[in-house]
């Protein structure tokens, strides 16, 4: 089951990468996010495109399974337009480099009107292993 989930993430990333190459413009890097002091490596992020708008996702795997966190709750669309991500989507509220290389610690928030906000409870730090996503052709 875990293998199937991993394949799904790889396929989604492939579709997103192909859409990014269609000339719709680059997704801004995490450096452009005011709330993110640590810059995530681009090869660790998944580019996702829907309705002509681009966003980046950070995949993670923990004891509860696999998931993704939205890097920025604002999506960038063609023609210098912006759209907000769906309210309630999980996002990166805070990120910092972990003690070990190739890992980061993130606090999860939820998207609300284009901004990642912390919920009513203080979320724990989640350790995320950064990886390079390979694009496999099946």
TrEMBL record:
Keyword annotations from UniProtKB, A to Z: Signal
Gene3D superfamilies reported in the protein's UniProt record: 2.30.130.100
Signal peptide (UniProt feature, chain positions): 1-19
Protein name stated in the entry: Putative evasin
Species this protein is from: Ixodes ricinus (Common tick)
């Amino acid at each position: 089951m875990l293998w199937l989930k991993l394949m799904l993430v790889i396929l989604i990333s492939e579709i997103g990468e192909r859409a990014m190459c269609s000339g719709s413009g680059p997704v801004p890097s995490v450096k452009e996010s005011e709330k993110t002091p640590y810059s995530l490596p681009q090869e660790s992020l998944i580019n996702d495109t829907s309705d002509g708008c681009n966003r980046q996702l950070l995949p993670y795997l923990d004891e509860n399974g696999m998931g993704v966190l939205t890097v920025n709750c604002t999506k960038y669309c063609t023609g210098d337009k912006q759209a907000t991500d769906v309210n309630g989507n999980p996002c990166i509220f805070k990120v910092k480099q972990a003690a070990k290389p190739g890992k980061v610690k993130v606090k999860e928030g939820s998207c609300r009107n284009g901004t990642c906000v912390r919920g009513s409870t203080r979320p724990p730090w989640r350790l995320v292993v950064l990886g390079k996503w390979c694009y496999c052709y099946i």
